[in-house]
Amino acid sequence: MRCDAFEDRLQHLLDERQCPEDDALLAEHAADCPHCRDVLDAQAGLFDTVRDWSVANLEVDLVDRVVDRVVSRATVGTASVRVAASRSWWQTASGRWTALAVAAALVLVAWKGIDRFAPRTANDSSPSAVDPGHTAQNVREPRQRTPNAPLEFGPLARKAAEDLGSRLALGVHYLHRGRTAVTDALRGQLSRKPDAAPGERSSSFLFSAASRLAIG
Amino acid sequence: MAELVRRYQGQVFALCYRMLGDRQDAEDMAQETFVRVLRSLERWDNTRHFEPWLLAIAGNRCRTLLATRKRRPDTSPIVADVPARGYDAEDQALRSLSEEVSLGLADIRAEYRQAFLMFHQHEMSYGDIAASLDCPLGTVKTWIHRARRELIDHLRLRGIVEGTSHAV
Question: How many domains are contained in chain B?
């Protein structure tokens, strides 16, 4: 047996959890090879020593420490979820910032809107009214207004109002169409259910059922 | 929960102690292991043995710690905790062997050490170790063979043979 074969066999026996000192082939080679005899001697006792380490003498009890940490973490986690759930949207930082941003945007829009749609007078000194360099399309004729006449909004304001109205109308229209589509779909489902009560087929019942499904 | 910790704390601590060579760090890592295990218990595949999974987590925690801190030179082997007085020559030799094995272990790569301890200290099979460490069985086998060879060389060079101590 050569030295590399000796090591292979030694590793194999250790893999199989057998005792290398009892192996005749290893003993035979070790008798003639001082290096391998040293290896055989050195490994003897090594693995018993390591096995004896399998349960160490633990001076502290980890049970309380671990349980405390796990329980406190779970309590903190639950509490934070509970607090988060009980908060209104405006009580959260992001909610407050959003509200602030919306308010600022509204103020800005209102201010710009007033500035843009404000009725013009003969004394209006805005550049569009007085600047001779403007083209004819851009030059707006100053409206004459008697001192007691009510304020009158310009055509852009009227157009904006009309746009808003038409968008709202369109939104309502889509809402109705969506409701009809859901109702039709559920009716189709119920038509396969012959024992359904007549009330179950009503639109409002079906719509509320659809809402419940969507929420669920 | 408490029963689980009570049952396995000795084994987890033993592995951590041999991996780290420091009692305080080993206690911290053992504690951390149980906290992690209890928090991720639902991820345990219950078709597999629990102990290899637990020890793999402990070993991985130790390897992470070893990677992040500079290894302390003054590792205190567990046998050094036992007072030397009152022990005969054979006990002294066993203590000496244990200390040398600890020193040898401290010098080998963390992956080798973890696989070696799982096989020889906790008597886990190659298959269980490979599954726990999520690496091929052949790799585990290579790591353990290298760990053995390095440990045997360390003992041979230090003149340590079974039952006696001839440390140079």
Answer: 1
